[in-house]
Amino acid sequence: MNLEILSNDLFMMALTLIMNIIVFSSNFQLSPLDNLNLYFHAILQMGDIAKDLFSGTVGGAAQLICGHPFDTIKVKLQSQPAPLPGQPPKYAGAMDAVKQTIAAEGPRGLYKGMGAPLATVAAFNALLFTVRGQMEALLRSQPGAPLTVNQQIICGAGAGVAVSFLACPTELIKCRLQAQSALAGSGQVGVAVKYGGPVDVAKRVLRSEGGLRGLFKGLVPTMAREVPGNAAMFGVYELVKQYMAGGQDTSQLGRGAVLLAGGLSGACFWFSVYPTDVVKSVIQVDDYKNPKFSGSIDAFKKILKSEGVKGLYKGFTPAMARSVPANAACFLAYEVTRSSLG
After folding, report:
1. Are 81 and 184 in contact (CB under 8 A)?
2. Cα–Cα distance between 215 and 169 in angstroms, integer?
3. Band of the pLDDT at 318, cuts 50, 70, 90?
4. Rounded to an integer, what distance in angstroms lies between the CA atom of residue 284 and that of residue 168?
5. Which tens digits make up the pLDDT trace of 180-193?
6. Which of 63, 158, 310, 314 has the fewest CB neighbours in a 10 Å radius?
């Protein structure tokens, strides 16, 4: 890929976005619909990178709206402490966690911690689909040529590396907010801290947990989840589409096929890496001053020793229940938006 062309593309994308922000914020003579038409027209003039960025943003928003309540329950189940001998766990299962959350915090409790991913979902999915798109361009034998399933696996793995650096601090903030009520009720030292919101979590971590390094706590398991997980997701997504299309040309598939492929690919993501996600979550909510785990391997061993294999699959049901509709919505929103942009 020509780096000069890539740099120019990025510059024009940034310039166009800035100009459209100015239009939205200062052009009061136009109606909101006219402003929206101007913005959409500007997107149409952008290159492939910008179109992937914009389409990824739309897909990410759809994914978050559909999936966050499931994610909240998943993290609550993952982060609840192991019960004392003879004592029941705080949550008996996914439905019990839902009932307790609604009883204690109302329906809005299911959306706790949404501020952090809402603020970064655009960047996360834009980066994911943009890196994947650029890797597709590098692997194509000629412009527009379809890729094989193996090539899509490579693209997914590469995208997974890139998004790990954004996912780690974002999910640390989200997990702290989602898990704090369960941890506060456990009586453990130092975990009853009440965070006021995403910004408050970031401030506390930066101030008292080693600065910027504290926000990247759990980077290793995050990358160990994102790289193989996205390789599996994009590989299965392409495999299902090609199977239903009867070949590599999937451009004529309907929305139902995209929904099915997206849902199955999301399920494969979590099925392939779920224990890694459990390790990531317990490390990110672990107390900084009195840590239970010295690292990813130590966390894996201790969970396995104290809870068995079952402990590595805490929250698996809500995670799988979330993955199908959330990823189906994400891929459909991405494909429809990307197709409309040309």
Report:
1. no
2. 5
3. confident
4. 9
5. 765 555 555 444 56
6. 310
Structure tokens at 212: 């910027």
Is 198 within 8 Å of 120 (Cβ atoms)?
Answer: no
Domain boundaries, the chain: 1-46, 50-341
The type of residue at 18 is I
Q: What is the pLDDT of residues 189-208, one digit of tens each?
A: 444 567 888 889 999 999 99
CA distances from 339 to 57, 117, 251, 255, 334 (A): 14, 26, 10, 12, 8
List the one residue out of 233, 243, 223 whose CA is nearest residue 331: 233
Enumerate the H helices of 80-218 as residue ranges.
Answer: 94-105, 115-139, 149-184, 198-208, 212-215
Structurally, at CATH architecture level, domain 50-341 sits in Alpha/alpha barrel (1.50)
User: What confidence tens digit (pLDDT) does each residue in 14-64 have?
Assistant: 434 434 444 444 444 555 556 555 555 555 555 778 888 888 888 888 888
The answer to whether 16 and 46 have CB atoms below 8 angstroms apart is: yes
pLDDT number for residue 11: 40
* 91-102 per-position pLDDT tens digit: 888 899 999 999
Residue among 273, 268, 284 nearest 323 (CA): 268
> How far, in Å, CA of 129 to CA of 52, rounded?
6
Cβ atoms of 231 and 157 within 8 Å: the answer is: yes
| Closest listed residue to residue 93, CA positions, set 255, 291, 332, 318 | 318
